[in-house]
Design a protein that fits this description.
By secondary structure, the chain is α/β, with parallel strands linked by helices. The chain is built from 25 helices and 21 strands.
Length: 713
Amino acid sequence: MLLWPDHPAFTTPLSSLKGVGPRTWERLAAEGFQLTGDLLGLVPRFYQDRRRPTAVADLAADQEALVEVTVVSARAAWSPRTRRRYLTAQAEDDQGGRLALGWFNFPPYMVKSLARGRRLRLFGRVRVTGRGPEMLHPDIDFLPEAGDGEALDGPGPAPEIRPVYPPVGELPAGLVKKLIDQARPLLAGCPPLFPPEWLAERGLDDPVAALRTLHAPPGGVTGALPRPERTKAFRQLALFELLFWRLLMLRARDAAPPAGPRAHVARGRAAMRAFQRKLPFRLSPEQARVADELAADLAGPRPMSRLLQGEVGGGKTAVAASAMFFAVGRGGQAALMAPTEVLARQHYDFLRPYAEALGHEIVLLTGALPAKDKREARAALAEGRARLAVGSQALLSAATVFENLSLAVVDEQHRFGVRQRLTLRRKSERVDLLALSATPIPRSLALMLYGDLDSSTLHGLLPGRVPAETLIFAAGDRATAYDQFVRLVRAGGQGFLVTPRIAESAAKDRTDAEEGEADDFPSLEEIYETVRQTAGPDLPVARLHGRMPPPEQGRALAEFRDGRRRILVATSIIEVGVDVPTADVILIEGAERFGLAQLHQLRGRVGRGGAGSRCLLLPHRETPAGARRLAALAETHDGRVLSELDLEMRGPGEQLGLRQSGWPAMRYARLPQDLPLLPRAHELAEEIRRAPDLSARLDFRALEDRLADELPD
């Protein structure tokens, strides 16, 4: 995610390159490669050293080497065994060392090209047999003969350091390199992004120059070649990538509506207090403190942009609802967006009694609603009859229009991104924004993800809540774990049984943790049947997963919540927000396949009613990384400590689901390894932001457009 100049080096359609026919174009476009800039952003896998030829006598087995030889003989033949033609040749270097060559697939002109006396430069992997060294299918350059001008295919290139690229989808690496070789010369005429004197004062290379070097490293390197990601050019690109992301954060913050006096603040405070009096409990001191912080923001002249973090079970929902009724009380509308249908319905069920008791209409708006219900909900919002809305990403749709949206609440903010925040904020002229997260985030990462937001934290659990006791079973000891799980449920409570998979063999169900493992994990349906048999008829069992139609999901959760079902077998769909106060035990199958932050969230589903609770962890296999995660979970309930460990072990993409909407596609910055670059990136971003001449050089609208997600209808 880098910002490049509006120049042919980055804007030329790949369809205009030699060798890109309709089929190749379709394959490139399917992988997100449409312009030369997309292709030039590709990072080489490694560099090949083709600078110094090696004498044939010095070649070693399995070595990649460059040799310069002369053809002694060549012969094409037919193999009855493979039923294919093959080409063999003998060549020797200036010291008389003999090298055997072979090709199994070759164009017809190759036989003529390998005429006796033809000089070749070859690069390939060496095999050593009883007859000496050989190369199969080496890269071949035809060198010019003395006095004959050009060789058959033109003069061979000078020895070089050659980048090797990964394949793109079904397109082989060799074709990718040929296309990049065509696009790369365009960089020579591309203007720099920043003034050279500004860069020199800060010891920086321009991003365009760094990209040029990444694809064509200078030949002056001595010794072993570094990997591309260890080069200075790559590190500079990583810094600029973080810099541009920080500038986007600052732009999002600066894009907030202008400050100005607030209307009907007293009515808003009165409505918030009226809601709090309706609650069947008193807000804890922590909840009251943060609710007052939000009220101060909502009464102040500057629009609110705030992130509210808190432990699982820390009481964020009641605090967010207080802010929503504040907004409604002063004449506005409030909307709460959740990442799943299940969580959206739960929030709706929580808020609806209070909204009705206080005389406000509330609507539910999700993608799974019947078209008629969606039309009615949207009409109520557009006409101003509905003052509160709860929904999924359907709230972001252009079809969803508010009469006067005053407050937007985004629950489980890590499932969304900057683009979604901006989309909600643009639903009305002046919108306050509150983002909620139960996933504790290391401060360094929070600065990157939520740099456009202020921050509040609810410390600790609600009074009366006791952390769940965490027990770890031996890998695969399902019988013991299931027996204890059922015994605890039978003692009078309810229990979740969580599995990481829905199906037993579908590749799309495999998690990153499962890559390379034997596909023998039981399906959700198998686990459901096993639990039913173990529990017996007196403990009714329900199941819940994301492929069920939303009405069935809602029915299963409702039956579990009201006690008609004592056990709920589910995927991690229950990870966020599901609140069943009578659930006091959770068994997590394949626990080593989840990250620490996710395990911490799942454990937070039990013990919400104040009674003692247990979290049973059943790994499917013993792995060192999995054992470390489970031991850490058993040792602490401090979400911030666990988040730091999770960042260290898994990286932010896994920890926070950052591959989902809104997170930038970083090609160069590697997290968490590159978090130390953030302070420098932030310092440079502030400097650019304060310098109109520098900011004017950057087309941020183009970068924002690249972050745009496909929004639901």
